[in-house]
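Regression test attached.
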Amino acid sequence: MSITLQRSAEIPQPARSARERLGEFLPRIVLAPSFAAVLVFVYGFIIFTGYLSFTDSHILPSFDFVGWKNYQRLWSLPNWWIALENLAIFASLYIVICTAIGLGLAILLDQKIRGEGVLRPIYLYPMAISFIVTGTAWKWFLDPGIGVEHIVRLWGFGNFTFDWIKNTQMAIYCVVIAAVWQSSGFVMAMFLAGLRGIDNEIIKAAQIDGATNFKLYKRIIIPMLRPAFLSAFVVLAHLAIKSYDLVIALTNGGPGRATELPATFMYSYTFTRNSMGIGAASAVIMLMMIASVIIPYIYAEVGGGNRGR
Amino acid sequence: MRKYMMLAAALMLGGIVNAAAQEKVEVLHWWTSGGEAAALNVLKKNLEAEGITWEDMPVAGGGGEQAMTVLRARVTAGNPPTAVQLLGFDVTDWAKQGVLANLDPVAEKEGWDKVIPAAIQKFSKYDGHWVAAPVNLHSTNWIWANKMIFDKLGIQQPTNWDELIAALDKIKAAGYVALAAGGQPWQDATIFDSVVMTTGGPDFYKKALIDLDPAALGSPTMKTVFERMIKLRGYVDDNFSGRDWNLATAMVITDKAGMQIMGDWAKGEFRNAGKTAGTDFLCFRFPGTQGTVTFNSDQFAMFKVGQASQDAQFKLAKAIEDPAFQSSFNVVKGSVPARTDVSDAAFDACGKKGMADLKEASEKGTLLGSLAHGHAAPAAVKNAFYDVITATFNGQYTADQAVAQLVPAVQGAQ
Amino acid sequence: MAADIAGTAVRTSRLTRAVIYAALLFFAFYYMLPLYVMVVNSVKPLEEIRGGNMLALPQQFTIAPWLSAWSTAQIGVQPTGLRPYFLNSILIVVPAVAVSTILGALNGYVLTKWRFPGANIVFGMMLLACFIPFQIVLIPMARILGLLGLAGTIYGLILVHVVYGLGFTTLFFRNYYEAFPTELVKAAQIDGASFFQIFRRILLPSSGPIIVVTVIWQFTNVWNDFLFGASFAGFDSQPITVALNNLVNSSTGVKEYNVHFAGALMAALPTLIVYIVSGRYFVRGLMAGAVKG
């Protein structure tokens, strides 16, 4: 689509005064503060956390080295395994359902719908609201005594039960429902943008060739959305791993510890149980999980230059 | 030149006067609503009358969980608040870090050593020095009962475990929720405190929950405790998970449930609803625990904030222990004063009973810290207990499994 | 750019269209439900909430909960309502969004039009920074803020939000400027324009959509943040999310759900308005490559 040149400043320059030399370094100087900030405040802190995971920090950071003890303790804690198991269930459901709904809604909205201008903000607004705000509403909704179960019973279906949120096995699915509600709109926007970027000529050509709508989507349009799928996956995966506000507002890790996730685990061990060393170890594992998803994506995006753009 | 010098002098003078009047205390707490906030406001006004400004830093949530995170950030940043609401072992943990101020001058002057029970002093002092000012003394082995239901079904106050079960059965059969409970780990643990005390007595309580003796933790007595917890769960309605404690109290207040096992802050809810002790509701010790008191005490720990603020800190500490404030605050909060020389005239029937029980237990040596509220074991261990208790109460462990999980969990958390 | 064609050239039958509309409406319902519940229950008196059905329209309509949430609800020892904290949030959000957007724009400009060896690595590293969970940075950040003397101040919070917003703002602008024709830049260089002149005269004027996307994104994230606001604010700089948390999560007293909902809506209003007013530009900006695949 657009021609990008590798080096913009390709004009040969005869004499280089100090001013010109400064000019050449100016871009780097402009970028430097941001880059330095990221180095310190992100990478520096990650290293700090990594270091803490090998110390016996309890209530505040300490610098007494204890080797792998924290990691050994971490992997022996039932709570941690519960958290990881919940993350697997939650993340897979969340990513798949959000992508499916996002793609579905985007395709539907793309059909020259009247009222798109009204529908789109409706789908998008959930991501504008913080979870402290909507957590209460969802908590009500899913509560059997006053929420969905109660209302459906009022409508006459006396035996209807929907007490998932109070059930240790099912509570995690309630978290999925609320999380999907918050993020699927954003995924829809990404897919919609992708769809709108597809050249109509290609579609017309395929229709002339006799493709049905179904085949059209399956063979042509959806494959062209591959970049959007990738972006959606990355955004959703990292949100799933970071998920904290949502769980706390909805279930506070309960019933019991049934909806514990790595993010809530890390917070609880660091700040509530005064076991910062173990909290740091769990944070390192979380970071490794995030990195394993993000780094390949970044490498594909950026590392090889602008191939195939 | 003259003019400038006069101006400078005036500014300096103004500055000095201002500095003196500018004494302030920044207080981090989580009493953000209800009677507690109003009661704390009284303290604020008392201090303002002495020329000290109260800078309020409320952080609600989780019974102090969020506040503790904020505290950590503040201490790490090097600007801790002047005073922080802390419970039990948290005071000790912070004192170990060397960040708490020394309140000995105030303590000596006001004679705290003589009037504050030794069991509380254990947490207010570190290394022999006063570091915190206790505001109150809550006890957790209470049952709050709906008098109308008791009278209607002809139930007497149960005095032992079997009578309790009989009473619960009767209430359940009559169609009420027998035991109102909220489903949060600390609430499950509050019930646990009382069941341990009634099953094994104060000596077992001390051995298992305070000394953390593995033999006691893995003993048949502990298994009985968990069996009893599971039995109690049968009297709680299925919607209890995640319910806030005051909503469970509301069930008792509005005649939906018969009893609640909860600390004496529950009384504040009855009071707010206009109910009177003895007429609308009953308060009695968990059957089998009369004569012992499992307590927790809210303390304002004073952090080292430099010489300039020390005077204000001392004034705050003094104001907290002022008998008049102790009386008015605790009447509202439902707890009893942290000092034993406060008159019980202003307190209602349950308050008077609480104060009498406290005196008795303190003398007999059966005034023991509540595990559920951080006064028997430090946070890491407390949470290890929470994990097992709450899993059992939610039906994930049998009594045998619970005991099997408990011993290594507590070991590992130390 | 085929930006404004609403829809692809796919043809559909009437039945299909009916099904499509039905599906869209069903989802609209799913998304609106919590908002509806909050709005409807924020204007009911408390007895009605306790007694009744949360979906029902109010029998007795009252704005008392809103007034209470704004100015008389108990947040700390004093019943101040949310008003003072609203102001704090504005003071934090506006500078933080402005600074991080400007820096993001400059960074994006440098990374795409002034390539130097290692530019891609730099960008990759900055991108990775978007994904860090915030609990991890609490303690070390607190230490640094303390060292800088910014702990407990609005400036400290602004710094924190700028730093952690840089990853995203740089990403958005970089992807956008990547697609921007470089010939124009080259031509301007030949004409002797300076670094900043090119930025101001050539790139900035066409940056409308991406600026909107970035501002929306940053505004939302900074306004809704709770963790940093609670941990790094002093008593006079707590943002509205902290106050809302105090309002909703208090451990004693009667739970005034109507006030809670009114307060929650009040706290969400600015971001909602931003979205409704500029939502259209959001999709446009995404199309222009904010989060390109």
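Expected vs. actual: identical. Chain B has two domains: 24-137+297-357, 139-295+361-412.
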